[in-house]
Amino acid sequence: MGVVLVYALCFALFCICVNSQSVTLVPAIITFGDSVVDVGNNDYIPTIFKADYPPYGRDFKNKQPTGRFCNGKLATDITAETLGFTSFAPPYLSPQASGKNLLLGANFASAGAGYDDHTSLLSHVIPLSQQLKYYKEYQVNLAKVAGSKQAASIIKDALYLVAAGSSDFVQNYYINPFLNKAYTPDQYSSYLVGIFNSFIKDLHGLGARRIGVTSLPPLGCLPATRTLFGFHESGCVSRINTDAQQFNKKINSAATQLQKQLPGLKIVIFDVFQPLYDLIANPKKSGFTEATKGCCGTGTVETTSLLCNSKSFGTCSNATQYVFWDSVHPSEAANQVLADSLIIQGIALIS
Ligand SMILES: *[C@@H]1O[C@H](CO)[C@@H](O)[C@H](O)[C@H]1NC(C)=O
Fold it and tell me: Is 340 a catalytic residue?
């Protein structure tokens, strides 16, 4: 696996970018979406969706809770390291998102955000439309720091990552009778993919050319959805997994169309459903022992720091054999498995 990866990356070694810190395969990483990729923007806004206190981050650098919904690194942190970055692009709302740090990219993601702005408004987090507005502001600031010529090349060659959709289903559609009475899951998926389509068009219009988008994970296997929606089932909630797979089909065909329509665009939908499902279905094969509950607290309902916090009773002492860190988010160990899969699926973006 390691050797294959190195060969694959050498093959992809087309442009090497030398920025102030290191030699990297892309000049910058620019990220949009939800808690799968939020590195701390929610620390700066009034919402309950925060992960800026222990035990979040207990296995991160300096045991620091940063706002990442994980015990350690996110899958995209690991991907950044694989691409050669020695430090991570800061959350855009933090004071660190200024000066030379902007050259590494920026992270606009906000835990709880969805494709549907209503999802984000319910949780008082940063809607995707606002994340895009912040990105426009970033472009102006980047040009001030780098000069307009270098800024344009960073914008064109940067890797763009988008991870959203889970909150639309779990925190909005399934619990919102106005939505789930008015729309079938299939109709709601089409609605979300419509928003995805315009988002990618806007991003392309602003200069992005290499875009990686995560599929939905097996939402019906999250400890939280099992607890909340799985009353009659012992394993994953199959109707919810079916909805996720239908969404994934739609977003894949939308991406295929976008790739044809938009000049110079490379877009990849990263399949996170299958690798995570495999891990949950057969944890022992990859050295895990627990795939049904998260490490933090009881591991069944804790999604926000309100419930997963330093006083949570029963938090496991070592998360390395847990697929889930809390009731929704994968552990760093599981993120490593996901990151291995992401980098292989994403070769086309960096070559
Ligand atoms: C957790 O367990 C793994 C082995 O399963 C070990 O390598 C690691 O050091 C442990 N971490 C802590 C913080 O105890």
Answer: no
User: Mean pLDDT, to the nearest integer, of 230-251?
Assistant: 92
Asked if the structure places residue 63 within a domain, the reply is yes
Q: In total, how many domains does the chain have? A: 1
CA of 62 to the centre of ligand 1 (A): 16
CA of 14 to the centre of ligand 1 (A): 37
List the CATH number of the domain containing 254: 3.40.50.1110
Residue 318 near ligand 1, beta carbon < 6 Å = yes
Pairing mode, strands 23-24 and 210-214: unpaired
Q: Does residue 106 sit in helix, strand or coil?
A: strand
Range of the domain at 272: 24-346
For residue 154, being part of any structural domain is answered with: yes
- pLDDT tens for 130-152 read 999 999 999 999 999 999 999 99
The CA distance from 31 to 76, in Å, is 9
Give the range with max mean pLDDT: 8-12, 292-296, 335-339.
Answer: 335-339
Q: With the CA atoms of 50, 54, 56 and 62 taken in that order, what torsion angle do they form, in degrees rounded to the nearest 10?
A: 120
Which of left, alpha, beta for 299 (phi over 0: left; psi -120 to 50: alpha)? left
Work out whether strand 23-24 and strand 17-18 pair parallel, antiparallel, or are unpaired: antiparallel
Examine residue 195 and state whether it is found in any structural domain, yes or no. Answer: yes
Check pocket membership of 320 for ligand 1, CB cut-off 6 A.
Answer: yes
Residues 261-268, mean pLDDT to the nearest whole number: 98
The residue nearest atom 7 of ligand 1, judged by CA position, is 320
